[in-house]
Amino acid sequence: MTDSKRSGSGEVAARRGKRERLTAAAVRMLHEQGVEKTTLADIARAADVPVGNVYYYFKTKDELVEAAIGAHAQSLEAMIASLDQLPAPQDRLKALISGWVEQRELAAQFGCPFGTLSSELDKRADGLDRTAAEVMRILLDWGERQFREMGRTDARDIAVALIASYQGISLLTNTFRDPELMAREGERLERWIDSLATEG
Amino acid sequence: MTDSKRSGSGEVAARRGKRERLTAAAVRMLHEQGVEKTTLADIARAADVPVGNVYYYFKTKDELVEAAIGAHAQSLEAMIASLDQLPAPQDRLKALISGWVEQRELAAQFGCPFGTLSSELDKRADGLDRTAAEVMRILLDWGERQFREMGRTDARDIAVALIASYQGISLLTNTFRDPELMAREGERLERWIDSLATEG
DNA sequence: GTCTATATTTTGATAGAC
DNA sequence: GTCTATCAAAATATAGAC
C-alpha cells in the first residue's frame, strides 16, 4: 500500500479541508462583493484553490451560495447557544446587541453579512431566497421567545422591530461608512430593552 | 426645410422622451432585479428602445445607474415638498410612515426601492455609492428637522432610528414576502411618534 | 437620431491530462 | 483528487449603415 498516505483518511481530510475553505471564502466574498459581483474565480482565489477544481466540490455557483447560507445558519445557532447561557432574557437580548455593536466596523464596510445576502437573494427567482428566510426566522423566533419570557404579549412584533432596527442601522452604517451610527443605535436599543421590562 | 418635422424641437422631444423612458425603466429594473443582475438589454426592452441605441443616451451602464439615483432624488424631493404642506411635524412624520405602509406590497416583492439600490452600490468601488449616500442624507436631514421642531434634543439619533426601522422592516417584509410586517411596524412607529411628543 | 451587426470581455462550466 | 486549457454563453460596448 504505497498509496496509503494519499488515499484513505488523508483524502477525506483534504476534501473536507478544501470544501470548508471554499465555503468560508464564499461567505467572505459574498459579504464583501455581493452575490452577483463575486465570480467563482474570486472565491477560488480567496480559498487558494485552482478555479477548475471548484467544480469537484460544488457543481454550480448556486451550490456555493447555498453552502454560504448554511455556514451563516451554523454561526447563528452557535451564537444563540452562547446567548442562552445567560439567565435573564433582558441580558441575552442586550448581549445580542453588544455583539452587533462590536461588529460595527465590518458593518460600515460591507453591511450585515446575512442581511445583505438575503436582500440580494430576494431579487432572484430560485429558491435560495426561501432558504435565507428560514435562517432569518431562526433569529426572529429566538427574539420572540426572549420577549415572551419577559412577559410581553406583543413579543413577536417587538422581536420583528428589534431585528429590523439592526438590519436598518446596518444599512445606514454601511451607506454612510460610519460605525458610530451602529454604536449610538445600540445604546438606544439597550435603553429600549430596559424600558420594556418595566413598562406593561 | 423638408426635414422640419424630424429636426428642431421634434428631435429634442424625442431625445428627452427616450432618455426619460430609459431612466424610468432603469429605476424599475434596478429595483426588481438589482444592479448586477440587470442588463442593458433588460432596461432597453423595458423602455422599448433598441439595445444599441441606449449608448446614444448613456455612454456606460454606470451612467444609467447614476440617472436612476438622480430620479430617486427627485422623487424624494417631491415627497418632502408634499409632506411639508402639513403644519405639524408629528403629522408630517406620520404621513411619511403612511406612505411607506401604502407601498408595502412593492416592498414585499422587491424591498425598499432606494435602500436595496444603496446596499448594492456599497459593494462597489466606484463613487456611485457616495451619490446614493447623499440622497439618503436628504431624508435623514429632513427627519432630523421634524424631530427638532418637536423639541427633541436627540433629533438626529431618533431620525436615524426611524429611517433604520423603515429600511430594516423593508428588508424583513421582503425576506418573508409578508406586507403585513410593514403594516404592523408602521402602526408601532406611529404610536412611537405620538409618545415622543408627550415625553421629554 | 436610429438601429443592426458585431467586436471584446467576462464568466460559468466542462474536458481531459496527470 | 488535482489542475490546465478551453468551451459556450452572456454582457458591455462599438462601428457604421441608414
TrEMBL record, chains A, B:
<keyword id="KW-0804">Transcription</keyword>
<dbReference type="InterPro" id="IPR036271">
    <property type="entry name" value="Tet_transcr_reg_TetR-rel_C_sf"/>
</dbReference>
<keyword id="KW-0238">DNA-binding</keyword>
<dbReference type="InterPro" id="IPR001647">
    <property type="entry name" value="HTH_TetR"/>
</dbReference>
<feature type="domain" description="HTH tetR-type">
    <location>
        <begin position="16"/>
        <end position="76"/>
    </location>
</feature>
<dbReference type="InterPro" id="IPR011075">
    <property type="entry name" value="TetR_C"/>
</dbReference>
<dbReference type="InterPro" id="IPR009057">
    <property type="entry name" value="Homeodomain-like_sf"/>
</dbReference>
<protein>
    <submittedName>
        <fullName>TetR/AcrR family transcriptional regulator</fullName>
    </submittedName>
</protein>
<keyword id="KW-0805">Transcription regulation</keyword>
<feature type="DNA-binding region" description="H-T-H motif">
    <location>
        <begin position="39"/>
        <end position="58"/>
    </location>
</feature>
<dbReference type="Pfam" id="PF16925">
    <property type="entry name" value="TetR_C_13"/>
</dbReference>
<dbReference type="Pfam" id="PF00440">
    <property type="entry name" value="TetR_N"/>
</dbReference>
